[in-house]
Write a structure and sequence with these properties.
By secondary structure, the chain is mostly helical. The chain has one domain. Helices cover 71% and strands 0% of the residues. Helix 3 crosses helix 4. It is elongated. The mean pLDDT is 85.
Length: 100
């Protein structure tokens, strides 16, 4: 578990994971399935950077790897909901081609 604790606090790991997921979703055609997870990984990289460099002072955002994974899961669900909301809202504004 020591390795998992180390790698969850490396900002570059989250950036690489986010870019791989976003690029994979765009070029491999996952139909925006892993795009929100990639966005959440990029947000996690910013949060881990803030936590590592103590931008807010002595406030600790993440105490161990379980908290990091928990917040990654929460951010993934929130980004799924936001992307679904914005994409469905744009579809409702357009007239349906099947209305005769």
């Amino acid at each position: 578990m020591d390795a998992l604790n180390y790698w969850s606090y490396v900002t570059e790991v989250w950036i690489i994971l986010g870019l791989i997921l976003i690029i994979g979703d765009v070029f491999l055609g996952f139909n925006f399935f892993v795009l929100p997870i990639g966005i959440a990984a990029l947000i996690m990289s910013a949060l881990v950077y803030v936590d590592n460099n103590e931008v807010f002072g002595p406030i600790v955002l993440f105490s161990d790897w379980k908290v990091v994974i928990f917040w990654f899961a929460i951010l993934s669900m929130v980004s799924v909901g936001l992307l679904k909301y914005f994409f469905q809202r744009n579809q409702k504004d357009e007239p349906d081609v099947n209305n005769y």
